[in-house]
Amino acid sequence: MSAYESLAFSYDALTYDVPYPEIAAFFERVLKRSGVEAQTVLDLACGTGSLSLLLAQKGYSVLGVDCSEEMLTVASEKSMELALPEPPFWICQKMQRLRLPYPVDAAVCSLDSVNYVTDPDDLAEAFRRVHLFLNPDGLFVFDINTPEKFARIDGESYVREDEGVFCVWQAAVEDGLCAYQFDIFEQEDDVWHRAQETHEERIYEPAQLTAMLEQAGFTEIKTYGDQSFAPVQGGEDRIYFTARKRD
Fold it and tell me: What is the rounded distance in angstroms from the CA atom of residue 246 to the CA atom of residue 226?
């Protein structure tokens, strides 16, 4: 089963504690600190659109891109419920095949979505395409799960539960990849239905990503601790990158 085919419709319930408002606020602080007055924003790997919708509510013109039709279906339904003056425009594409209807002032890729591109050549192409569709002086902001985090969760099991949905997953690291095996149980009346999915993330070293960004044409590449402007000390579970398009 492909990633998020079953998980998409219970994703929001199982990730209720993801701090999307804090992610949006940090993104805006990064833009201000970098002197970028963005009107158009790409939310790359937007998932069910939670961040896209927050940014749209803040007045940005948002393009939400994700490779999962199921996740975008949920995003679209959420968008219609909000009746925004300018809802996000949803596009189903893989990062490495990114093609936008117009260039954007800034791009954000959150929640370690970069790690989900498991082929380094595909990720290098994704960076190249983000650079292509950024306006001059545009900014690209993304975060990753660090090698230290993957080492910490190797072999661990996790459980998440919400009303009518129960999920168990295990993490296993091998040959530079972390595989997550999900067992998802969803209730329909008195019956529980089970589905299984496997997701994979690539373990990238920060220096490797910096080299990819430089090769794609980005400059002023910086790394920060999770949702802060503190220098990376080592040992963080998550770090942020910012990169500028100057041409």
Answer: 25
